[in-house]
Design brief:
Number of domains: 1
Subcellular location: Secreted
Helix content: 10-25%
Low-confidence stretches: none
Mean pLDDT: 84
Number of helices: 3
Order of helices and strands: HHEEHEEEEEEE
CATH class: Mainly Beta
CATH topology: Lipocalin
Keywords: Glycoprotein, Secreted, Signal
Strand order of the largest sheet: 1-3-4-5-6-7-8-9-2
Number of strands: 9
CATH superfamily: Calycin beta-barrel core domain
Largest sheet: 9 strands, antiparallel
Shape: globular
Protein name: Alpha-1-acid glycoprotein
CATH architecture: Beta Barrel
Radius of gyration: 15 Å
Length: about 140
């Protein structure tokens, strides 16, 4: 996994740096970049309930497509949680352009994140939950 994650750095023309994670401004140019099919690669969190979820999550694929409103995106998720396949069709991502946040809402929970500047084929989200931080790569 480390080799896979380090491959883009090895192939880039610029040497790696310790640059901070830079959130993307959500506008008409960045929203279409989020649309499409994504495979969850890895995540980390300091929020205790998320730590428990990460232990049992084996695989996740999700599709993001336009919703019924300009700042709303629909999400279909397929997950393997231990030995159970879970499909969620009813979740929505609300886009808040004024503070560049994404709020994922499903039947039970709400999660807030910021899109981090990255390559077009990598979706990096910085998750915010009170004072707990998290990061995911897809």
């Amino acid at each position: 996994l480390a080799l896979l994650l380090g491959l883009p750095l090895a192939l880039s023309a610029e040497p790696p740096s310790c640059a901070p994670l830079v959130p993307v401004t959500l506008d008409n140019d960045t929203i279409p970049r989020i649309l499409g099919e994504w495979i969850y690669i890895v995540g980390a969190s300091s929020y205790p309930p998320h730590l428990e979820e990460l232990k049992v999550l084996k695989y996740t694929a999700f599709s993001i497509f336009p919703g019924s409103h300009e700042d709303e995106l629909n999400v279909t998720e397929i997950m393997r949680v231990n030995e159970t396949c879970v499909v969620r069709n009813g979740s929505v991502i609300h886009v808040f352009r004024h503070n560049s946040t994404l709020v994922h809402v499903d039947d039970q929970t709400t999660a807030t994140a910021k899109l981090i500047q990255s390559d077009k084929d990598l979706l990096i989200l910085r998750h915010l939950h009170n004072n707990y931080l998290g990061l995911s790569l897809s």
